[in-house]
Automatic annotation (TrEMBL):
Keywords: Dioxygenase, Oxidoreductase. It comes from Lactococcus allomyrinae. Gene3D superfamilies: 2,3-Dihydroxybiphenyl 1,2-Dioxygenase, domain 1. This is Ring-cleaving dioxygenase. InterPro entries: Extradiol_RC_dioxygenase (IPR052537), Glyas_Bleomycin-R_OHBP_Dase (IPR029068), Glyas_Fos-R_dOase_dom (IPR004360), VOC_core (IPR037523). One of its GO terms (molecular function) is dioxygenase activity. Residues 17-142 form the VOC domain.
Length: 387
């Protein structure tokens, strides 16, 4: 890979690392069951795609909504996707120790989840696995992590042992034909540092670096098939910025570099900008604070938090409904779904069975689900009716 041009980014605007990853699933019900009953993450928000009411959007996170935001669309009638060149290939989840990977190997065996062997990448122990769609993930141990400490905590109602639970997102893998061009963009535009190479993998870090602030770029080789999006593939990845003010800096910066981008998009749970960095590869920059609409709700006293100051340090998922309510039913941010738009969205959702009524159920004594149980569960049928 060739040497990239360097550029200066103001210290208070440096990106913070991986914010969330959004993927495509064949079934909202099955992905809900897989993540809550096998992976031990909580459903933080149930809503719809803000551009397509016939598509659910599910957000999964750890206990406090501060580290492991993995989200899913279930686009209607979309075919199975294909992994390959020019694609975001794999998301990672952080676990506390190397021993955690042994724990998860045993858990995956019992749950019949397809997985590989524990290996080492860039000095970190990892364990690759797949879900029922062939969506690709890995667990990464924080035991040897030298970057920022994970801010998340294992979901307290999960039957995953607390000392081994998922606490955040780790490196995201991106496979492209033109690694030189993507390196130039990562270093020059986004402020990443090149941190090493292992075979066809190239590690890039930003901010404090480490497991939570890294991307791994993989070289596509001659003869590799081209990826295409569908269920079982990743739609986009998001990098974090502090708040709406720092997001304005990034919008101006990306415009200055003339990269294709969306401009400001307020998702309520956070505010964002989307930018195309390579063919088939979509990045997002998202705020760690709630989005502009959510902060305005809090400022007006209409949110469930007590003050605007509290809203600034609260997950955006829990501004329009409390942490204890979230995920039980469809949530539609009022400024994005006014009047008839909310009615249309609720009507569209009512025609698509999905049961999340047990999202706050205490699972600590539950028997571990198998992947077969996840696949066999009928959409929209309450869990107690399946026993």
């Amino acid at each position: 890979m060739t040497q990239a041009i360097q550029s200066q980014i103001e210290n208070n605007h440096v990106l913070g690392g991986v914010h969330h990853v959004t993927a495509i699933t064949s079934s909202a019900q099955k992905i809900y069951d897989f993540f809550t009953n096998i992976m031990g993450l909580r459903l933080a928000k149930l809503t719809v795609n803000q551009d397509d009411y016939e598509t659910y959007h599910l957000y999964f996170t750890e206990e406090d909504g501060k580290g492991a935001d993995m989200t899913f669309f279930d686009f209607k009638d979309i075919p199975k996707g294909m992994h390959g060149a020019n694609n975001i290939e794999r998301a990672s989840f952080r676990v506390p120790t190397d021993a955690s990977l042994d724990y998860w190997t045993t858990r995956f065996d019992k749950a019949h989840v397809k997985h590989g062997e524990i290996t080492t990448k860039f000095g970190q122990k990892t364990l690759e696995f797949e879900d029922f769609d062939g969506q690709q993930y890995q667990l990464i141990s924080d035991q040897a992590n030298t970057g920022a400490v994970s801010q998340g905590h294992s979901w307290q109602l999960s039957n995953v042992a607390a000392e081994h639970g998922i606490t955040g997102l780790g490196p995201v893998f991106v496979k492209v034909e033109n690694t030189d061009n993507l390196r130039l963009i990562l270093e020059t535009v986004f402020g990443f540092r090149y941190a090493g190479q292992e075979g066809d993998l190239h590690l890039f870090e930003v901010a404090e670096g480490g497991n939570g602030a890294a991307l791994i770029i993989q070289e596509a080789h001659e003869g590799d098939r081209y990826a295409y999006q569908g269920y079982g593939t990743i739609h986009h990845l998001a990098l974090g910025t502090t708040d709406p003010e720092t997001l304005k800096y990034w919008i101006a910066r990306i415009n200055a570099f003339q990269l294709p981008n969306s401009g400001l998009v307020d998702r309520f749970y956070f505010s964002s900008e989307y930018v195309r960095v390579a063919p088939g590869v979509l990045f997002e920059i998202a705020t760690y604070t709630p989005g502009i609409g959510a902060l305005e709700m809090a400022k007006s006293g209409l949110g469930v938090v007590d003050s605007y100051e509290e809203a600034l340090i609260t997950s955006g998922f829990w501004i329009d409904e409390s942490k204890e309510q979230s995920g039980l039913g469809l949530s539609l941010p009022p400024h994005l779904f006014p009047g008839d738009e909310a009615t249309k969205a609720r009507t569209a959702a009512s025609l698509r069975p999905l049961d999340t009524s047990d999202t706050h159920r205490d699972r600590r004594e539950d028997e571990l689900w198998t992947i077969e149980k996840v696949v066999e569960r009928k959409a929209g049928v309450p869990l107690e009716a399946t026993k």
